[in-house]
């Protein structure tokens, strides 16, 4: 390993750091999980060549490499530990091309999603993947985790927005995958395989992404309160069942409303025990919102509608305040199950059962439009207590029973490894491991993560 | 092989046929290409168990298996030859579930795309992938080739509509991939890897597909004529550049217009040397069409617009008559390159250069909205002459030079194998071969195709 470090410094000079604070910062991500020991070094790659040089040295010395973007992951997928090189692509943060006519952009992996959207926005363009972390998460990280977000039911997940990738393999070779055209079926779809692969198959060093024109016209936003979380879930299901397609549909349960009230001094919880925010965009937005409002009111929701952008922001304020309000209550494990959207009420019931069984309160937010729930487990101290993991495990099993998945958008990383086999089954798990070996025969790419 | 046949008959009885006519029909697809010799047998699987039994016997006896849907492929990907079992999934043609609230359907692979859409249409629902062959092609085949079609720029390709798959592996094991939820990032995305894998990785025996609500309201359709094909391509590019999103945008060149006139007795070619049909749907259809009409007229197009469905069909009649008109001229090799949509004019120039060099006429249709062109090579006799392949090869190389791909939606199959390495490069080609070996270590699934 000393050898690896010496070789890295020789090849990459200043790009290699062993500064204690920098190493420590690479031991954590936004999950709060911290690795046992600092990594060997952090390489701040400035170019594809830097990444290739790093991988060649890692390959030659059999040194593990953890590729890292902005470190906003919630599953421990990009944290470094003893003897590992953390390869940051955050300095590769340029937009290389914006092609308005072909509706594509070529970007380096380190650019922040929010920054890319600022640049695109100046031209009336838009990169649709919108994880809640978009202001602070990198496009490379979004791709490595197939990030979701609030708009997925209408505008798709990250995979749908990636046309092509440049990837450095474990041995330092550079691959170009995909194409610049909308269509293309030459060989297996390795671009799609790479999206969501959590640093296990290669290092994403460039992406050709599909962009859209910004949606024109006013948005129409509804904030609504209900007597119970099942009522809110039923309203969201009824909106979809009526053929309406909101851009955003966010559900907040009672414990989360209480947390928000305590944190920001609001009195949301006096209006109901569940909150549903619904936003429509596009040419039919106002009309769709009026129809949604009727549905909500019929189902007993207490709702207000606005087409004013400033008022809309006020109506969405509860949702935006949810995470900081929960974080103020203690250490938070943000979980991430996904179920078919009609099973949302059942999933809330299952969470309530886990609450009763374990004597816990599990404040839960949901992207109701796509059936993705974030149950939050709150505890004292830095480490997740075993009992919390046990309770979370029961939540995961419930999601699987309902036809869902144990992670909708955060990924497996370190924190969900032990449940992977429950979802995939032994045969698929082995197949996935073999695919990993094809790309990385020496097992140096993010070892110990996912599998 | 006799052993394999005896085992198949013992296990599957009537589902196994060696009828000469049936064997001969499995030697061809819609490309016109015919294999050298009939296959060993055709298995008409009635169930997942039949597929598993077939694969177990094939695995045990090392007998190659060609999975086949409706046989409408255009690249020879599903044709059987000497010693091969052709495994047809066309008898597995049921819709197992339509879930309107979750906007998903579970289907068997043998159902025709058009039939599925009839069934969905009765409930106001819709499966968006729409290859031109949809009336006669199977959903399983659509998935195995990641079929494209006319609506892809707006509504995506087949991959975007597949949530999960059941797949029988080479050794007969059944895998369940993906999920019923909109989101899900557990492990590598093997569902996406399977889409477009042309029968090389497994046998698709069930699919959970995303469905949509039928688009409401009138469609608005424009038919327009231009002095030259570059003008038509420029008009299509200008429509996209103006931020408009047609559902359909189809371009026809002069040789194709001539062929249509000769075949149906029309006089389209007196109105221009290129034709562009544009159709808008959704709530803003009429407004978008008016804006497109202005653009077309400014660019010198001779255009008419209708919002009447019957008149729209009349305007699209030219496009629909194109393939039979060309087929009437001789044997047709329908090619399938794709380029970024702004490179369409350059691609037409490249085709014109190949025409001059080889003394050929290459009638060309294009899905202009997504940059997918179908140059047609017409010749006498059953076999594609070497000179035609040479000319086609130059067309493929031109597409690659323009940032495109040698197949937008038909696949590699048998007919484009020799160009695969040009697009993928040696490193990626080897990686793809290794992935194939992970799924199919004995190489019994569709051997000799793609690679």
UniProtKB/TrEMBL annotation, chains A, B:
Identify which cofactors the protein needs according to its UniProt entry: FAD
Claim: Oxidoreductase is one of the keywords in the record: yes
User: Is the keyword Oxidoreductase in the record?
Assistant: yes
**Signal peptide feature range:** none
* Superkingdom of the source species: Bacteria
- GO molecular function list: FAD binding; oxidoreductase activity
What positions does the domain FAD-binding PCMH-type occupy?
Answer: 35-214
Keywords recorded for this protein, A-Z = FAD, Flavoprotein, Oxidoreductase
Pfam families the record matches: FAD-oxidase_C, FAD_binding_4
What PANTHER family does this protein's entry cite? GLYCOLATE OXIDASE SUBUNIT GLCD
- According to UniProt, the name of this protein is Glycolate oxidase
Which species is listed as the source?
Answer: Paramicrobacterium humi
